[in-house]
Amino acid sequence: MHVHSVVIIGSGFGGQCAAKALLDRGIDDLVILERRSFLGGTWRQNRYPGAAVDVQSPLYSIASEPFEWTRMFAEREELERYTDHVLESNGLPARTHSDTDVQRIEWSGDHWKITTSRGDYAAKFVVNASGPLSTPVVPPFPGRERFQGTQFHTNDWDTDFDHAGQRVAIVGSGASAAQVIPAIAPDVKHLHVFQRTPHWVMPRNDREFTPLQRRLLRVEPIRRLVRAAIYWSLETRIIGFKYSRRALKAVAQRAALKHLATQVPDADLRAKLTPDYLIGCKRVILSDTLYPSLGAPNVTLHDKNDGIAEITETGVVTTSGERVDIDLLVWSTGYDATDGVISYPVIGRDGRALSDIWNPYPRAYLGTTVPGFPNLFIVTGPNTGIGHTSAIFLIEAQMEYIVRAIDAVRAAGAVAVEVTSAAEQDYTDRIHRDMEGTVWKDGGCHSWYQSRSGHVVAMFPGFSFTFRRWAKRFRPAAHTIHMAPTTAKEEVSA
């Protein structure tokens, strides 16, 4: 069996950034494995009505891949076109094997053995870029399997189903629901929204670009200046999220409360929509249309006092005893983005399972690599999430580390690189020490940012430029370079 230089798992932005970085390094013996029949990840998979990005388009893009964006916050169709542009311009479709679901990977001394639904692969290095938002979660409400109508998760929206004139229930009120609700409310007969906890909502301030502005966004250095202006304006948010609750309340939370008061005149509805935790503890929603939609006469908001008791053949029975008959049940209930960030078994050196190492919570050096798992790199791994700026910025920062680690192996004529346990432990201790006092840890809520153990494992507790600075410096003393496929190895020190 041919041993590829690199196998990349996933063809979304993480996989695309990895492939670009490796090709730029002259590493062209690479294969991308994609479990779906199409390429592109999130913005090809999520086809629910209203899907759009919540970071400004000029920044939510790969630094070396300019695009003629049509609006400040790109909608799904435009993001799909951008994804296709990146894939095609870098020749990635020819390097991708679709309909190939990874079932298991195992280290065999000098390479990874990869078991998939379409056969086996082997690679010296593996880059997992399956992404944190790829494994949908549906809560085990009693009776869910008995429902005789149509039901699906927003991640698997049935585009052939016509929701117009239907009685619809949507379970969840987070980022996806906030986009679906305004998109379908005008068309449905009645929409029931089941909200466990309200989210903070800020004005979106979206707008279309003029034809001239679109062209200018492809011109250097104008594009770089626009990206920099957006980046630094967003980066200031971490000051409130981490360093100053007073500033967070005085600026962001006050603006959110004003937005709520302006758009929701009904006092009872406004009370249901007012969070009891600090803004930022859960993902902040950007929307100018959510609140008006929730106040529409054909929309009913069910809060925690009137939640779901059970699912029946015809709909929902609430905790207050109300029977709600529906035709369509939409699950907008998120993903297993912390404990289940890698959905397949990963077996490292000495037969150790990553799931065991990650008990009680996921952890990784620079959120990217784990002791005992040589040559394995995890894109958007533990504590690489970012709540205030573009996720692609962090992904590109991870690439800085990954290519330098691979360079170290190639330069030494070695077979593997592995972070030391001490370096990973020091890094993890620092991350969770820095997490204390942040809005994600102590903001008064329980969110998907936290693992089942209560550790915040989704977010990076600091400025994104800090992470990038750390990732740019490969520290030899923090790694072991394996010089032979067996037990012989050589410590490379600074």
Short description:
This protein has 494 residues and is α/β, with parallel strands linked by helices. It has helices at 13-24, 42-45, 76-89, 175-184, 211-216, 222-235, 237-243, 245-263, 267-272, 290-294, 354-357, 391-412, 421-435, 439-442, 464-472, and strands at 3-9, 30-33, 96-97, 102-107, 112-116, 119-128, 150-153, 167-171, 190-194, 201-202, 285-286, 299-302, 308-311, 315-318, 323-325, 328-331, 346-347, 376-378, 416-419, 479-482, 490-491.
How would you describe this structure to a colleague?
- Keywords: Oxidoreductase.
- One of its GO terms (molecular function) is oxidoreductase activity.
- Its EC number is 1.14.13.-.
- This is NAD(P)/FAD-dependent oxidoreductase.
- The chain is of the alpha/beta class.
- It has 15 helices and 21 strands.
- Strands 1, 2, 3, 4, 5, 6, 17 and 18 form an eight-stranded mixed beta sheet that branches.
- The relative contact order is 0.14.
